[in-house]
Amino acid sequence: MTIFNLGSINVDLVYRVPHLPGPGETIASTSFKKGLGGKGANMSVAIARAGSRCTHIGSVGDDGQWTVDTLASAGVDTRHIHRSLPTGHAVIYVDDAGENSIVLNAGANSCVSSDVVAAALAEAKDTDTFICQNETNLQAEAAQMAHAKGLSVAYAAAPFSAEAVKAVLPYLGLLVLNEVEAEQLQTETGHPISELPVRDIVVTLGAAGCRWYRGGQRRDFAAIPVTPVDTTGAGDTFTGYLIAALDQGKPMEAAIALAGKAGALMVTRLGTAEVIPTLQEVTEAF
Q: Which residues of this UniProt protein bind ATP (predicted)?
């Protein structure tokens, strides 16, 4: 089976800082690293490293061939990444406690072609999965196309937009969002998360673990305690592993457990896509 991921591809500019800068404050970084990132790219790498087949749908500029090559080297199918505007990028500050602050520039991520999405999904079967996030255009259109073909449709509601979530809700089988996003969505819709018309909803809670809703029932999963180095990409790693585990036929409980381990290992590493752990590393670590 294949997981089709309509997702962002960013150049991550990561600065290690003593603390996150406040308004008007200038501080010196202690290190700098340039690498592949973007929620979509991170999830594609996580899916591939978890052992599932992943086809990435996205856009980069002429300056972004190395990002495509990096995805391909991780085992991601990159045939449906096209060229448009300059590649998107993110400026990321990471402090000594592992917390981060991120500024995005969408670039080519805002120019994914509907023809490219259609061409990718023309290859899909009803046993496949489609996933998207909020760092590209065409989420609702692509989700509708995937749903019409019988694919399982998953959605990571970040960066949060209530209107974007509402647009894809009719097509979803799985919704993944963090605690703050869940509260925002509940406020916008006027309904508890458990009452949304989605079969499975997973709310990540950071160091507190995560919460799974199905059929009005709730189950909590504890996090694995680790000392964080960098939380960047941890949520993407969790989601990628979750989708991959479900694709491989694991029940939701086992998929969440594996995703939690992958996310925990990820926060002990500095960086984004290139340091997402492999399945062997996850199983050996825990």
A: 178, 204-209, 235-236
